[in-house]
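>> received
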Amino acid sequence: LLSLTIIGVVAAITLPSLTGNINERTWNTQRKALYARMSQAIALMPALNGYGTFTAATDSASAVDTAAETFVTEGLSKVLKINNICDSDHLADCGIAEKVTPMNGGSILELTGMKLLSEFNPAFSIQNDSNANFSYSQFDTKAVAFETVNGESILAYYNPNCKPKTIMNAGVWNYTQPMMCANFVYDLNGNKGPNTVGKDIGFITALYPSDSVVIAPMPLPVNAGSETAVDGARLCVQQDAESRLPNIEELSAMLYNQHLLGITSDNYWSGTLDYISETMGKVYMAVNFGACKEGPWASSYKYNIRCVKR
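>> returned
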């Protein structure tokens, strides 16, 4: 009886840890496989913009918005095996979880209630901002959801008017939202749980309408500190030996999904070197999460560092 008691105590202590490690490995494997399939599929699409119809109206009954749904039905489904497609009023029917815990463990997010791009991230509600270094008109399109043949549930947001990469000048911040063509929030096991960002839930973003870049960064849960761009890489290694500074596309994707991560303000460094100046030295790309803008800046400034897994 004493031996059985000891075995039971040891099992009770070690089993949750072993189960957690198995889940982590399973999620990592699934995440990499999904990213590979999505990257290959999007690479086969000739362009990511221009799908569907979007007609704004003063009353919702007169508005026409088939952009995201057409992007999936007429574009993505031709190059990716999809089982089921659900419109913005039936997101839960495709396994989208109603309650999701963000990476920082903050307030619960209700994904099924985020039916518009601007509801997912208010940064996409900007319309011809006169204070911007360039202005743009953002389509506030409806979300769409779909299930893959491998069992993942994916919530998709789409910008049918996405733009090519913007050439920027040092010290000038520009909006990064127009360059996002599609943003996917995936759930690797439907709504089974734990429905937590960084575990079974993550995001994949496609930038630029042609020669698209597809990224799926996996940020660490907390900042590594505040440092210059040059020393930011050192902070990442100190925080986690297998992490690094995100490149500018990864950092932009983190901006689009900032509420999933629990980031709402402040400047963050990327590891992307823009150019070298005689007066400013190395100029790296940074993103302001509060103003939702990006731009090249002198690396001597100390900004926040949020590292991503290699």
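>> The first strand starts at residue 54 and ends at 55.
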